[in-house]
Amino acid sequence: MSERRRRSDGATLVTGASSGIGRELARLAAADGSDVVLVARREGRLDDLAAELASDHDVAATVLPVDLGAPGAAEAVATALDEHDVEVDRLVNNAGVSRAGRFDETPLDADRETLRVNVAALMALTKLFARPMIDRGEGEILNVASIAGEAPHPEMPVYAASKAYVVSLSRALARQFAPLGVDVTVLSPGWTDTATGRRMAEATDADVGEWMDPETVARAGYDGLLAGDTVVIPGASNRRYVRDVHAARASELD
User: Fold this and answer.
1) Contact criterion met (CB below 8 Å) for 130 and 139
2) Of the residues 159, 165, 222, 241, which is catalytic?
3) Which is it for the CA torsion 114, 117, 121, 123, positive or negative?
């Protein structure tokens, strides 16, 4: 664990902070004056981002190079921050694994890793950091899902199912935690112009009508969190897609 200067007030913890949407969310938090905890596997990229944020915004940036797919990863993050007296008042669960392919052909170990990172680690981090927020009577949680979580996706079934979990959990916790002073928001982007997004589009041979840039997606999620929104879906075309999915689902019950 490497640490830049730390303040006494609460920090924003961002997983998957080394690139893409996670990196932009960390930048937004730091620009608002929040100390940040940066979690991802690529330590070099985290160190570079930490140096940038500390220099540009005069905040403390703590680097935790952690593989969230490893057993006990969430507990290791919580223990490290407790030992260094870093209090987290905003949790951003952004880390995720994206894979595509026919269900019977994708490797079992790869699908298990998707669930460990996208579901198990997110759930564990939320449980570990929500309790202190509730005890303090304030806090914020932003979970990054996907519009793929709004409907079964035949080209990425395990990924879509994992994001459906994130959407459902976030909606439930938003209701459960609101009276306790903790806001929960789920950010569900569509196709976003990141390295991961480009790989997924290629793997699924997707006809991407419109790419969104990670800065715009991150800003929408960050602003939605601060506004107390439960669901944020950036982009008009993405919102139309989700509305159509919900309408089609409702018609199935008629």
Assistant:
1) yes
2) 159
3) negative
Q: How far apart are CA 234 and CA 159, in angstroms?
A: 20
Measured CA to CA, the distance from residue 129 to residue 132 in angstroms comes to 6
Classify 212 as helix, strand or coil: strand
Query: Which pairs with CB-CB distance under 8 Å and at least 24 residues apart come from 161-169?
Result: 162/96, 162/114, 162/115, 162/118, 162/119, 163/96, 163/118, 163/188, 165/118, 165/119, 166/93, 166/118, 166/119, 166/122, 169/122, 169/123, 169/126, 169/143
Give per-residue burial for 230-240: e unless 16+ CB within 10 Å, then b. ebbbbbeebbe
Measured CA to CA, the distance from residue 244 to residue 147 in angstroms comes to 12
pLDDT, tens only, 7-40: 347 999 999 999 999 999 999 999 999 999 999 9
The answer for residues whose C-beta is within 8 angstroms of residue 123's C-beta and 6 or more apart is 169
If one counts every other C-beta atom within 10 angstroms of the C-beta of residue 27, the result is 22
Q: Per-residue confidence at 192, pLDDT binned at 50, 70, 90? A: confident
List the domains of the chain with CATH numbers.
2-252 (3.40.50.720)
Distance of alpha carbon 41 from alpha carbon 151, whole angstroms? 30
Dihedral class, residue 85 (left if φ above 0, else alpha if ψ from -120 to 50, else beta) = left
Q: How many residues does the chain have?
A: 254
Dihedral sign from CA coordinates of 183, 166, 13, 200:
negative
Q: Is 241 a catalytic residue?
A: no
| Residue owning tokens 């994992």 | 162
